[in-house]
Recover the amino acids of this structure.
């Protein structure tokens, strides 16, 4: 990309340049612009990614009630002991039914609020398919450029956008709890698929070790993924920090594996497909024929695939 | 679309024309071609959708263990009593961890195998993001053109593709079970969001009525959806068919609501966005620069958004 095309829109360079200073203010301002979908961010993206320092992007997901936020707090404490500056993006899901639980989680995160080397930001959902995912990885790039490493992306639940966001991270930790009925186990299968590391939390409860053994057995017999080793299953107790050192070690150890050409290529392909979907939808919805086309599909006068083809040919 | 453009590829008209005969063989052959992604299907889509008779497309989803397949069987029996010809698409999720449970479900579906007015087809997942969703609604259009009404789309679990597929149906039934710990309840929130009707199944178990009351309370107080009435919560016992008549009535009653301009427009927009995402990804991956672009993103030499923009400009 030439410098001219960057300068053409509202000269955004200063905002990227300021990130390297390590000050919180320029980063906070940039994150707000990213979250708001400010058009001046778009032309600055090549520069933003180029300013990246190679932070390890770690996704942490799991159902509410798994003690995930307490575990994240314990991990932050451990990483701070190791001299790491930690960035956290806490992604709120779009569901109106779960919002309460998540706000509760956020309050607990205040523990590290006074630490200048911990930067926490809640990302609100726009309720658009994939919109949060795109916004989240641009925000992660901003934290990377500002010198935070690791950058944690924390999501809640097993919904569509949570799984997508987890797929975009280099290392994905799925937090589970010991109690697992058959039904819950099956629901969680979608989460296990994206797990690079599984933490069975609340390890002080009876049955935690047994649950970990069952998970290991389940993962080692599951077909369809012969090319990949089953993810390690760790037992943690976030409230006492038991097992947290080992978990932090496992996350660090996965970093090199996440950066093999195959893993990096798969992740890049997922990111580009996601960005393509967002971009195609955004352009199509701004197209003059959008409303008319949607009405024709709603009236069954036009099939959705032909409609998509016409829109894509018009806006590409 | 002109007749020439349809004739240009392997004259697919006979396959659509034959559907109206009501014979199973041409429908089965067409579904195989749809599932295989046969390129001759693409130009026939406008004709296929034009041949639709306006079947009610009903999505049924819920976790394994909820008795969903038994409930589907009971619904088929009820609709057959009402003289309806029922088409069923059973969508297998891509997860290797749940496959066993679903194969078990399929065997139970054999109950209606001898009935010529019930057409059941399993759709295998291709493991591609959204690929199943697109294939599924084209297959639903084929069942519609062949005179089946309702067309049921049955999916399992709370994964990404299941929720997406459910969004494409006109009426979505979510099947739940009475036992709901806080954790399971939160996991299920993603499913409740797409529900037009909720069936609390295994209604003969203690606590079924209480679970239904709790769900109603939860749904009536949930914010963010003020423009929509909360979905009705029904109690069913699939094994004895208790509550199944009322459920079939509720599904039929929702049909007219699903066809208001607002609902139909939202669904059409979702379908077109989904198709756009698939189409943009398919074209981009066939582009000569795809591999090089993905490598540049993997090496962090290019950001995913700029990569998507270049690919889209090249293939649109």
């Amino acid at each position: 990309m030439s410098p001219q095309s960057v300068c053409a829109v509202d000269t955004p360079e200063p905002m990227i340049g300021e990130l390297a200073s390590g000050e919180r203010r320029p980063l906070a301002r940039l994150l707000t612009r990213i979250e708001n979908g400010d058009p001046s961010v778009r032309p600055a993206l090549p520069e933003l990614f180029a300013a990246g320092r190679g932070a390890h992007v770690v996704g942490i997901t799991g159902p509410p009630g798994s003690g995930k936020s307490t575990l994240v707090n314990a991990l932050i404490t451990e990483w701070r002991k190791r001299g790491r500056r930690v960035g956290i993006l806490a992604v709120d899901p779009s569901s109106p039914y779960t919002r309460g639980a998540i706000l509760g989680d956020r309050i607990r995160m205040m523990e590290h609020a006074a630490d200048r080397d911990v930067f926490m930001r809640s990302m609100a959902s726009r309720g658009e398919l994939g919109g949060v995912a795109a916004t989240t990885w641009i925000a992660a790039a901003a934290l990377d450029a500002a010198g935070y490493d690791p950058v944690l992306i924390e999501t809640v639940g097993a919904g569509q956008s949570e799984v997508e966001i987890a797929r975009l991270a280099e290392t994905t930790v799925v937090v589970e709890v010991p109690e697992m009925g058959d039904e819950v186990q099956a629901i969680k299968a979608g989460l296990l698929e994206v797990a690079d590391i599984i933490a069975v939390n609340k390890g002080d409860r009876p049955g935690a070790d047994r649950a970990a053994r069952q998970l290991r057995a389940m993962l080692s017999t599951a077909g369809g993924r012969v090319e990949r080793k089953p993810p390690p299953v760790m037992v943690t107790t976030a409230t006492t920090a038991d097992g947290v050192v080992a978990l932090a070690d496992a996350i660090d150890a996965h970093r090199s594996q996440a950066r093999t050409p195959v893993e990096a290529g798969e992740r890049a392909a997922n990111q580009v497909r996601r960005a393509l979907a967002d971009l195609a939808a955004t352009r199509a919805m701004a197209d003059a024929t959008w409303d008319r086309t949607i009405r024709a599909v709603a009236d069954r006068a036009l099939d959705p695939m032909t409609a998509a083809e016409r829109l894509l040919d018009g806006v590409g």
